[in-house]
Amino acid sequence: MIRITTVYDNNLSQSELQDDWGFSCVVEHPNGNIIFDTGAKPAILENNLKKLHIDPQSIKYLVISHKHWDHKGGALWLLAQNPNIIIYMPKTWSSSLEKSLLINKKQIHSIKENCPINEACYLILSKNFWINELALGIKTSKGIIAITGCSHTGVLKIAKTMRFVTKEKIHALFGGFHLMRSSKLKIKNAVIGLKDEDINFIAPCHCTGDLALSIFKKEFNSKFLKNGIGSQYLFEV
Predict the structure, then answer these.
(1) How far apart are alpha carbons 132 and 150 in whole angstroms?
(2) In terms of DSSP bridges, do strands 143-148 and 170-176 run parallel, antiparallel, or are they unpaired?
(3) Averaged over 172-200, what is the pLDDT?
(4) Shortest CA distance to 36 belongs to which of 44, 28, 27?
(5) For 107-160, what is each residue's pLDDT tens digit?
(6) Could you count the other beta carbons within 10 Å of the beta carbon of residue 3?
(7) Residue 63's beta-bridge partner residues?
């Protein structure tokens, strides 16, 4: 089984956890556990991982989706707990973080194009004129589970690219959709586009925004998964 747990978010699912602006989730996978982004504050990441009984030593891979503070803030703390983590980040800004991490560069993969992590997990590099962002794709028997940090390049663009590159439909889409300051029309267009992709489940959070969350919940109905700190979902491999 694959288990996806949201460990850092500004939407609260369990009261004993601590909410904060940012995003991080842990993918427990037979081929190696992945933490996708690390939130903003190390102490909050540490607290939530501990309360959710997730051992940093159990994590094999760290993917930092993009350069913003609310997605990379817990990285140094995490690497202090587990110096052997293999790191993936966009090429355009990785050198500055490499210096601050002060670890063997063999552990850091600076990504400038789409690439696999292992035989079951894939990274998509999405670009626009001001930022490059990684999204994670996880193969399952029912399609791809896609995870995005902020969707700065557009959630629909990321979904379409994931499907095109992997040649598989998207089974589930998790993460920030970056629609918090968007008009209702733009949100509706995103809904229409994602429905056209025939995605089985969506689990938006972080920078999606309250209006967009309410619209997605109404439009996707039973396909909408509530997502916040402490949310856990199981999928067959």
Answers:
(1) 11
(2) parallel
(3) 96
(4) 27
(5) 888 889 999 999 999 999 988 767 889 999 999 999 999 999 999 899 999 999
(6) 14
(7) 36, 88
Specify the range with the lowest mean pLDDT, choosing from 18-22, 124-128, 170-174. Answer: 124-128
Going 53 to 200 to 9 to 16, the CA torsion angle's sign is negative
DSSP characters for 190-208? HHHHHHHTT-SEEEEEGGG
Per-residue confidence band for 40, with pLDDT thresholds at 50, 70 and 90? very high
Class of residue 224 by CB neighbours under 10 A (exposed 0-12, middle 13-18, buried 19+): middle
The token pair that represents 230 in the structure block = 């402490």
CATH fold for the domain made of 2-235: Metallo-beta-lactamase; Chain A (3.60.15)
How many angstroms separate the CA atoms of 87 and 100, rounded? 13
For the chain, the residue count is 237
pLDDT band, residue 105 (cuts 50/70/90): low
Domain ranges of the chain: 2-235
Give every CB contact of residue 150 below 8 A, 6+ residues apart in sequence: 23, 65, 66, 68, 71, 133, 175, 176, 178, 206, 207
Q: In whole numbers, what is the pLDDT of the chain averaged over residues?
A: 92
Q: Any long-range contacts for 87-91 (C-beta under 8 Å, 24+ apart)?
A: 87/61, 87/62, 87/63, 88/61, 88/62, 88/63, 88/64, 88/117, 88/123, 88/134, 89/63, 89/64, 89/134, 90/64, 90/66, 90/125, 90/132, 90/133, 90/134, 91/132
User: In this structure, what token pair is assigned to residue 175?
Assistant: 């993460």
Q: Using the structure block, give the residue that is written with the tokens 């803030």.
A: 73
Nearest 10 degrees: CA dihedral of 188, 229, 3, 53?
A: 180
pTM above 0.85, yes or no: yes
